[in-house]
Amino acid sequence: xxxxxxxxxVWRKPKRPLNYELKMDELQTLxxxxxxxxxxxxxxxxxxxxxxxxxxxxxxxxQKVRAEKEPILLKSLxxxxxxxxxxxxxxxxxxxxxxxxxxxxxxxxxNKLGFKTPYQARQAVIHGHxxxxxxxxxxxxxxxxxxxxxxxxxxxxxxxxxxxEKAKAEAPAEAAPAEAAPAEAAPAEAAPAEAAPAEAAxxxxxxxx
Length: 209
Hints:
Order of helices and strands: HHHHHHHEEHEH
Number of strands: 3
Number of helices: 9
Shape: globular
């Protein structure tokens, strides 16, 4: 079990953290899912590595023992929406870290409740504006199960829905003047064409020399 004062790490660093392509992929994933630090991404990698290890160990068992333990793993993963109900161990081995990050409460809120960025959704979760069923959840990394996904909503006292509606109403009004600006600039572009006949008349005038 271990000493509760010194818990084990739930994440492991990559073997080559300074690899350029790896760093670019990590930064892209951080921006896509609104992660605060790379440690949150490494936690997803570590958890997925643990799940894959379980799947590989099941493949090495006899058919009788595998038939008893395989449904337990598949059921736990389908419960949180990582795989379908009729998935196999091959589907488990094909999982990616982004599949696990997509089941975070922060990502579900960002996709479902109309936030512009996942960072806005993260702030709403941390400040207690989000409820899952009848309880408030202020942990962005909370894994949402399939049964809970439809019950994610704003808390009754939250004013964020009004702010989002107001922002949507103001967005078309701000876009209209921007579209009209190029049309007003069109006559100015036609001015050089009007000056062309004057230049041509000057060239046709005979020289007095």
